[in-house]
Design brief:
With 183 residues, this protein is an alpha+beta fold. The chain contains four helices and six strands; from the N terminus they run αββββαββαα. The strands form two sheets. The protein has a four-stranded antiparallel beta sheet, covered by helices on one side. A two-stranded antiparallel ribbon has the order 1-2.
């Protein structure tokens, strides 16, 4: 019978990607994950901050970024300013401090909107995977690799898979929204 594992894996990866994306949304607490998407120009090539510096959390509202190579300090500062984190890096010449101010009600609402947007993008990706799967099975049916009944079963199974992953995306987004609104 039909093999769904490749489509299931793609859907799983979409959920993991959403979780990673949502981890970068700051929730009022210092969390090194907010820096995951930021790239620093390191000798001409974009490099993740984690690969050029150590990141510590001395208290719940502060991140300290200490580059292993002092020459990259300005680059890190520029990359943080250019990002959409809304944080002001404090550079003392050896390290950068990021102080996370408490979230305002307006900022919380913006972050919830961002969460919904990321979740919707993930749902679209899941639906595109479903469409690809159904097209594949339709081609197999047309070329007589599978029967009409097998095609109908495959279509139903892929739809169930899609529904399950859409529910998973809703759960992930709901958890993040709750976290954003509780603080």
């Amino acid at each position: 019978m039909s093999d769904y594992s490749q489509f299931e894996n793609k859907m799983k990866k979409t959920c993991e990607s959403l979780s990673t994306q949502l981890a970068t949304l700051r929730a009022g607490r210092a969390n090194a994950a907010v820096l995951d998407q930021i790239q620093v120009d390191y000798y001409g090539s974009p490099t993740p901050i984690q690969q050029v510096a150590s990141i510590a959390t001395p208290d719940p509202r502060t991140l300290v970024i200490q580059p292993w190579d002092g020459s990259v300090l300005k680059g890190i500062e520029k990359a943080i300013l250019a990002s959409d984190l809304g944080l002001n890096p404090q550079n003392d010449g050896r390290m950068i401090r990021l102080v996370f101010p408490p979230l305002t009600e307006e900022r919380r609402k913006d972050l919830v909107k961002q969460t919904k947007k990321y979740a919707e993008e993930s749902k679209v990706a899941i639906r595109n995977i479903r469409r690809d799967a159904i097209e594949k099975f339709k081609k197999q049916q047309k070329s007589s690799e599978i029967t009409e009944d097998d095609y109908k079963i495959a279509e139903k199974d892929v739809q169930k898979l899609t529904d399950d992953f859409i529910k998973e995306i809703d759960k992930i987004a709901e958890k993040k929204e709750k976290e954003l609104l509780e603080i």
